[in-house]
Amino acid sequence: MKRLPLLAIVLGLGGLIPFVGLAVAILFAGTLGPVPRLGMAMLTYGGAILSFLGAVHWGLALEPPAIMSGSGTQKLDRQRLLWGVVPSLWAWLALYVGVVWHVRAGLALEIAGFLATIAVERAAYRRGALPPGYMMLRLVLTTVAVLCLGAALLMPLENYAI
Question: H helices then E strands: how many in the chain?
């Protein structure tokens, strides 16, 4: 497999801007009182990014030239296709729970989703199923995302009606 392009690294790091910006806003505004709209913004952005993480594996399964065999999908491709869908389903559940029940519960589910995703990806990386450099980037991105989601989880995020 080829190495990660610099653009992928730059865009990945750029994707942290909303996480960090929202966490800083929640931490500073949260000292003044509840910040429900910022918590919901964090929840929705976390869900979007978690969904995106599955797309990486879907793309790897469908990447030419013939990573998927012509006679049917091989075990690795089946695993990639399956894992390509799981994070988006988990993100949907987190968003649903965060909207209809409590933002905190949705944020906690997203943290669990990010941690489960990094665990699955680490196992895949050890088997050589992910490109060089991918795990280091994902570890940095996941760490920052989970810390930001955790900051939102700890601040006063009162429920509100949409």
Answer: 6, 0
